[in-house]
Specification:
The protein is mainly beta and about 140 residues long. The protein is built from 1 helix and 8 strands, in the order H-E-E-E-E-E-E-E-E. The protein has one domain. About 5% of the residues lie in helices and about 40% in strands. The chain has a 5-stranded antiparallel beta sheet with strand order 6-5-4-7-8, with no helix packed on it. The protein has a 3-stranded antiparallel beta sheet with strand order 2-1-3, covered by helices on one side. The longest helix has 7 residues.
């Protein structure tokens, strides 16, 4: 079974959180996934933003989610620029969480013959130098 490169050895600079994303990045230190929730539209949104993507208001709240979901779509990167150059092939997936919000991230620890749309996945947290973690997904 051929396995994709997990890109875990790629040196990643820790993010510089903005005021509206600080809570998200703080939660990653504990390997918890929190997602913004818009009470007025009763929908989640990801990635963190200052305002609702549904109507522009600022009344968002953070909710913890399991991070479990399924692959909605994916691509296999066979060519890459630094810092990913030399780490190909690797998988970039669009995951629909059980809470019906999409998250784009690397898919790791997955053999080629197992990768498919609809595959159930769970969070995998890649450590960053400052104690934060980068969200990735692996087969559940």
């Amino acid at each position: 079974m051929a396995r994709f490169n997990d890109t875990l050895s790629v040196l990643r600079e820790p993010p510089k959180p903005r005021s509206f994303s600080q809570a998200y990045w703080d939660a990653t230190r504990e390997k918890r996934l929190i997602v913004q929730y818009d009470k007025r539209s009763a929908k989640y949104q990801f990635f963190p933003r200052a305002t609702s993507i549904y109507d522009g208001h600022r009344g968002l709240e953070w909710r913890q989610v399991s991070g479990k979901g399924e692959i909605f779509s994916y691509t296999i990167a066979c060519r890459a620029r630094p810092p990913f150059q030399g780490h190909e092939p690797f998988v970039i997936g669009l995951i629909t969480l059980d809470e019906q919000v999409n998250v784009m991230a690397n898919i790791v620890h997955c053999d080629r013959d197992r990768l498919n749309i609809g595959l159930r996945v769970k969070p995998f947290w890649a450590p960053l130098a400052n104690g934060m973690h980068l969200l990735m997904f692996e087969p559940d």
